[in-house]
């Protein structure tokens, strides 16, 4: 057991935990994008930033990869953290505005503007699919290739891979493509529609397959049957 | 296997390939980059077939090999020219006029960065720091470093080299102009 100061609270946690796991254990919610319990932490999205160390000499680290330690001082929601986090979400929104996961993050964290030019990228290079394929599906069919701005996820030689068994694990876990919003497309990069309106998708795509799970709009409007249930028991 | 033969590396003789792979793996053991360097040195690029058979031989997943092969600038998945010119476009070299040098090379050789001349004789590539910034701007021709370049100096070096390269092989031999020893040092950043 090691003792540390978590948001001003003296706590003791198991050695070998990451700061993210420790925070979760004490019910502190840190947003993540590239983290998944079943996969090795990767530290790509930087969304799980926390501030460690004495004020004035503190630094930002990714909590999903940072191990707890004796006497560690962690602030998960300091002003600096929140500000940086919002900026990150803003950047992600500009990169991939059609991602439901990112839109929800934006709503949750009150990101109300995007100061960058939307780019409509299909991939945010979080590496979830690569790890899913290798670690959970024993596939090793996809991976990163090239470097810098050309970096991308692909199969060897950009061709259909012999290792791929079409399990769909990569699509299941992708925050950018799996949960692509099926609702009406907003003009602006910030949609916020599901949080602010009733189900925007309801009369729009009545028979379309909905990947939102859970759907914020469906949950908010619990009076109506969630879309997923409508699909399962017509 | 099937796909291998249909789409693999063109004219690569398979017998050769086996020997090179086994020899290189024996020598370098686990170091993938070293094995890839051997393949590249032999074929002048990394043929797809070679990488596939390397993956089978070593059990390293193909995607990992592909990842490494596409990461480094000194590896190429398409055939490079017989003589390779690499010019540094790193920060220091850039500040000290690498773009002028690159332009000059393009003018002399008639190819741009990333291209191979039509006759397959030479290719030009840019990299992001060759690790010898003190000599900036730098270019490497077939493994030989030329530093402190100016456009004029570059032109001089290249025109003399080009004359040498473009001679029919026999003639060059007679005149004692060709020394193949250099080719073996072709290693990049
Ligand atoms: S969740 Fe920690 S960096 Fe992405
Ligand atoms: S920048 Fe050219 S050698 Fe370092």
SSE topology sketch:
The complex is a heterodimer of chains A (234) and B (189).
Chain A: E1 2-6, E2 9-13, H1 19-25, E3 49-52, E4 59-62, E5 73-75, H2 79-95, H3 100-108, H4 128-136, E6 143-145, E7 152-154, H5 169-173, H6 193-196, H7 216-220, H8 227-232
Parallel strand pairs in A: 1-5
Antiparallel strand pairs in A: 1-2, 3-4, 3-5, 6-7
Helix pairs in contact in A: 2-3
Chain B: H1 2-7, H2 14-28, H3 32-43, H4 48-58, H5 62-71, E1 83-88, H6 91-95, H7 98-109, E2 115-116, E3 122-127, E4 139-141, E5 144-146, H8 151-166, H9 169-174
Parallel strand pairs in B: 1-3
Antiparallel strand pairs in B: 1-4, 2-3, 4-5
Helix pairs in contact in B: 2-3, 2-4, 7-8
The structure holds FE2/S2 (inorganic) cluster (2 copies).
One FE2/S2 (inorganic) cluster binds at residues 88, 90-93, 129-133, 136, 138 of chain B.
| Rg of chain A computed from alpha carbons, rounded to a whole number of angstroms | 19 Å
Helix content of chain B: 40-55%
In the CATH hierarchy, the third-tier topology of the largest domain in chain A is known as: Ubiquitin-like (UB roll)
Query: Termini distance of chain B?
Result: 33 Å
Global morphology of chain A = globular
User: What best-fitting shape of chain B do the alpha-carbon axes yield?
Assistant: globular
CATH architecture of the largest domain in chain B: 3-Layer(aba) Sandwich
Please give the order of strands in the largest beta sheet of chain A: 2-1-5-3-4
Q: H/E series of chain B, N to C?
A: HHHHHEHHEEEEHH
Give me the Rg of chain B, rounded. Answer: 18 Å
Greatest interface (CB-CB under 8 A), with counts per chain: A-B, 16 and 14 residues
Bound molecules: FE2/S2 (inorganic) cluster
Level-2 CATH architecture of the largest domain in chain A: Roll
Count of the domains of chain B: 2
- On the 0 to 100 scale, the average pLDDT of chain A is 83
On the 0 to 100 scale, the average pLDDT of chain B is 82
């Amino acid at each position: 057991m090691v003792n540390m100061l978590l948001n001003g609270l003296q706590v003791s946690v198991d050695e070998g935990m990451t700061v993210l796991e420790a925070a979760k254990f004490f019910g502190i919610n840190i947003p993540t994008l590239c983290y998944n319990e079943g996969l090795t932490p990767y530290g790509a999205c930087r969304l799980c930033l926390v501030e460690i160390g004495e004020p004035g000499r503190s630094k930002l680290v990714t909590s999903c990869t940072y191990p707890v330690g004796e006497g560690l001082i962690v602030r998960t929601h300091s002003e600096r953290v929140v500000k940086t986090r919002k900026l990150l979400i803003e950047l992600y929104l500009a990169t991939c505005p059609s991602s439901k996961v990112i839109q929800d993050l934006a709503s949750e964290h009150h990101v109300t503007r995007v100061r960058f030019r939307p780019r409509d990228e299909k991939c945010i290079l979080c590496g979830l699919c690569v790890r899913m394929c290798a670690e959970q599906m024993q596939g090793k069919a996809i991976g990163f290739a090239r470097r810098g701005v050309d970096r991308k996820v692909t199969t060897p030689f950009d061709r259909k891979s012999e290792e791929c068994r079409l399990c769909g694990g990569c699509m299941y876990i992708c925050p950018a493509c799996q949960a692509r919003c099926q609702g009406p497309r907003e003009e602006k990069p910030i949609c916020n529609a599901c949080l602010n309106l009733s189900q925007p998708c309801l009369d729009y795509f009545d028979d379309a397959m909905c990947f939102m799970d859970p759907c914020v709009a469906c949950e908010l409007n619990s009076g109506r049957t969630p879309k997923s249930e409508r699909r399962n028991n017509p | 296997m099937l796909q291998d033969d249909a789409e693999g590396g063109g004219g690569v003789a398979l017998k050769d390939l086996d020997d090179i792979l086994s020899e290189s793996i024996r020598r370098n053991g686990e170091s993938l980059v070293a094995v890839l360097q051997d393949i590249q040195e032999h074929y002048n690029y990394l043929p797809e077939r070679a990488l596939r058979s390397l993956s089978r031989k070593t059990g390293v997943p193909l995607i990992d090999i592909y990842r490494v092969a596409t990461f480094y600038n000194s590896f190429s998945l398409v055939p490079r020219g017989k003589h390779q010119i690499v010019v540094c476009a790193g920060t220091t070299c850039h500040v000290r006029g690498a773009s002028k040098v690159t332009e000059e090379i393009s003018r002399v050789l008639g190819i741009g960065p990333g291209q191979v001349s039509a006759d397959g004789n030479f290719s030009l590539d840019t990299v992001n720091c060759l690790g010898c910034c003190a000599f900036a701007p730098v270019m490497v021709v077939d493994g030989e470093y030329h530093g402190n370049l100016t456009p004029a100096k570059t032109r001089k070096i290249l025109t003399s080299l080009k004359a040498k390269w473009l001679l029919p092989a026999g003639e060059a031999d007679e005149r004692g102009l060709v020394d193949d020893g250099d080719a073996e040092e072709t290693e990049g950043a």
